[in-house]
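Help wanted!
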Amino acid sequence: MADVINAERQVNGRPVGTPRVRHVPGEPGTWVLLFGDMAVFTVVFAVYLQARGQRSDLFAESQNALNRNFGAVNTLVLLTSSLLVVLAGKALRSDRWRHFASRLMLSGAAVGACFVVIKAFEYRERVAEGDTPTTNEFFMYYFVLTGLHLVHVLAGLAILLALSRLVRMPELTTTHIAFVEGGSCFWHLVDLLWIVIFPLLFLVRRS
Amino acid sequence: MSALIRTNATLVWLALSGLTVVSWVLGTQRSLGGANHVPASVAILVVAIFKVRLVGLYFMELREAPVTLRAVFESYCIILLGLLVGMLLLG
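Answered by r_m:
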């Protein structure tokens, strides 16, 4: 029972009222995965910008066909979902609000699911206008980058649903707390990646 | 409930949402940079990386993480900013 903690009385694995200690959110191994993912996307961003530099007119013309409103609204959707997940974590550590943690986590997943719906409308609009990954180089990168990110969104939503069940348990072990923190950080990574993908694909241009 | 919502993360969410709207306006208005959109695009990328940093520090709670982990994240932000702005300017 030594590793069983009562989340109502502890914050980040320490009793309430004691000085803050620096703490790795989730398992250290989670950060290898998260930074690895960030590195892979960074390479794709660099490859995209290099290709853009070589065929800037084609990229600018194709980018103009995109509906920027979809991208911007989806940014706000992910930011709001992330905030709900942060609040779920905060509720989990509080005596008063712990019973809200599961509902907040579920709300985060529900708002996050709106991203998928909006993305479906966005893809439908593209395909209706005849833009597919084989149309030209820009749309190849557009579908690869947004598609890779969408896979992360779907994985993140599954994690949030699992966490919403986990936080309903009356007692959480330090391992459970690490799952909640690590899973939440993965969801924030999904948000973080979109914060770069949106301007890169939809907004940034030379003329 | 308001006590739960009154947190740094909520203020950061407001800032992130506001910055998203700023980027949206910068990215959709053609007249801001005349025929040359590079200055506005650089501003959009700087704002994006600032937002990435806010998500890392406040949502992922890296502000309270061990110095090494935070340093890796801060380095990632600097490298990403340099890479994206550099490639945009040189491309």
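OP: Thanks! One thing I noticed: Chain B is about 80% helix and 0% strand.
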